[in-house]
Amino acid sequence: MGTMFARGLKRKSAEDGEDVEGGLAGAQAMPSYSLQRQSLLDMSLVKLQLCHMLVEPNLCRSVLIANTVRQIQEEMAQDGTWRVVAPQAAGRAPLDRLVSTDILCRSVREQEGERPGPDAGDGHTPDLVPGLATVPSAQALRSPQSSLWEVDSSRENRGGFQKSLDQIFETLENKTSGSVEELFADVDSPYYDLDAVLTGMVGSTQSGHGSGLQAFSSATAPPPSSSCRSDLGELDHAVEILVET
Amino acid sequence: MMPGIGVLTQDTLWCFSQVKGTIEIGATEADIISTVEFNHTGELLATGDKGGRVVIFQREQESKNQVHRRGEYNVYSTFQSHEPEFDYLKSLEIEEKINKIRWLPQQNAAYFLLSTNDKTVKLWKVSERDKRPEGYNLKDEEGRLRDPATITTLRVPVLRPMDLMVEATPRRVFANAHTYHINSISVNSDYETYMSADDLRINLWNFEITNQSFNIVDIKPANMEELTEVITAAEFHPHHCNSFVYSSSKGTIRLCDMRASALCDRHSKFFEEPEDPSNRSFFSEIISSISDVKFSHSGRYIMTRDYLTVKVWDLNMENRPIETYQVHDYLRSKLCSLYENDCIFDKFECVWNGSDSVIMTGSYNNFFRMFDRNTKRDVTLEASRENSKPRAILKPRKVCVGGKRRKDEISVDSLDFSKKILHTAWHPSENIIAVAATNNLYIFQDKVN
């Protein structure tokens, strides 16, 4: 399947002041691990919010996605990349936000050579990254903004939950150049154009009625992305349902 | 016919027998089959669909004339089991999709089955009627009451034969016991109780009592923000009415004994395979989530299905499975895309054959896989209309992972991920299998020599 970014992708200016030449070995034509991890995080958060509005969302799926989000956030907190404002170019192509490469599917051992270390700002090479073997357990690191499931103590009221959502959005905001609305605006088009994007990379053996990874029909549950535009009111409602306030 | 013979030697060839359901043009989403189940004798085969309907097929008596054609399954009864509902409190629809059907063992002339959607379990009685009472004294032919003044004699109605009618009536409705979505139901071996499991709780019911149930497992945390694990499937032990297992989204299985305490939050046994740290990725947990758990007929083993594998566990060994079978390991490098398009959350089921020697599960592209536990051979077959000539032998399929693709192989990128085989069933004693492919039900039998 290869990577979708292989062709025509310009090298990014490094995040976190990393030295680009310092050791993103083999990632010359591919976005860095950090970028892809960020993309996976964005994708996961969108998945949590773009739920089926008519029917109660699948709790198992939501829990698994939330756990994935938590894992990523904990890893980022460990890296020290969680709070850093990344000077990401505002004019980046929306494609960059999508992650369909192999990198995130690779085992940790393979990734070891590419991940930024906790003190990446010093220009350490990724080889010095310590303790990558396991992702810390959920209990180990908890940041207040870390999870959709985590709300402050005044839990059972909407206001409390709203605040927590805001924290998440705030955090996202820090990582992007634009506002929250812009974040979703950015996300909308690439996700809705998923078909177009993936068509270009999946092989040439597509049949007329759309086989392949990109064009799964609506034979099963309705696709989460196509018809729900997220505005905050709906998000509140959806997340509220998720935690059963 | 030797019962349960399922050795996948070269002698066992699977043949197309029948296909039920519309061809693509007329198919609607409501026709998508969501569960398949043989009854305990294999005489009946039930399917449930997204539209809340149940269709029961009955095997016809084998005729001496057509020895080569073993009994075919024909429609026996069709009924609407569940209707869509609206939860006004949450402003959400409750789907009518039938999540599971489980048969009760037959105890009289009628057949009983449990069917469930996300919230409500129903007990259905399916019975035959081939006689009709005629000659009522107090009513006329149309059923209207006669003027009592005109009645001068007493007449006892007489039963007269009529065309066979199969009627399904709901005998019990077990409602309002589940806050979350029901994923499993399982009939206990005492035939008096059954359990229903949702994402966070398992309830025990008595068939006769619909207005209350016992909660036997509750994993809902006090604070929902601490929720990290849900129940994915549950089943009673086939012989020990006090034991049951349930699986979780973290890849664990718990065996519980109801004699130990009323609330079975503490397990008797805990089955979990240690994680392979070299294989860890952000998707590790998701692909370890167990989508189905099934006891073997013997009760000695349990089989679990996660996204990429099927595992067989010995009840006496908790720290790892005794067998692991790769269903479609070529998807391991595609997990990111499968996460993106949500396929990674597909819940595949798995089944044992009658003698527990072969296990079967579905995959994508309408492929399904069988693993012979004794010979360690496996085969990939396809449910498709192209292979649907009567008694046509199914040709094994192969997915090409990389390099040069041979003529009959299909490459991973050409797989159709919208064609997924989630639900299959195996006849309790014979080599007859039912495979649900979206809105079609395929029935395959082994070749009779």
If you had to describe this structure to a student in words, what would you say it looks like?
The complex is a heterodimer of chains A (245) and B (449). By secondary structure, chain A is mostly helical. Chain A has a domain at 31-81. Chain A is 37% helix and 0% strand. Chain A has 7 helices and no strands. In chain A, helix 1 (33-49) packs antiparallel against helix 2 (59-79). The longest helix of chain A has 21 residues, at 59-79. Chain A is globular and about 50 Å long. Chain A starts with 32 loop residues before the first helix and ends with a helix. Chain B has helices at 284-288, 335-340; strands spanning 14-20, 33-38, 44-49, 53-59, 73-80, 85-87, 92-94, 100-103, 111-116, 121-134, 158-174, 182-187, 193-198, 201-206, 214-218, 231-236, 243-248, 253-257, 269-271, 292-295, 301-305, 309-314, 323-326, 350-352, 358-362, 367-372, 378-382, 399-400, 410-411, 423-426, 432-437, 440-446. The longest helix of chain B is centred in the last third of the chain and has 6 residues, at 335-340. Chain B has a single domain (14-126, 167-446), classed as YVTN repeat-like/Quinoprotein amine dehydrogenase (Methylamine Dehydrogenase, Chain H). In chain B, strand 6 and strand 7 (92-94) form a beta hairpin. Chain B has a 4-stranded antiparallel sheet with strand order 1-32-31-30, with no helix packed on it. In chain B, strands 2-3-4-5 form a 4-stranded antiparallel sheet, with no helix packed on it. In chain B, strands 8-9-10-11 form a 4-stranded antiparallel sheet, with no helix packed on it. Chain B is 2% helix and 41% strand. Chain B is an all-beta fold and 449 residues long. Chain B contains 2 helices and 32 strands. The interface between A and B is large, with 61 and 61 residues. Chain A: This is Cell division cycle-associated protein 4 isoform X1. Chain A: It comes from Zalophus californianus.
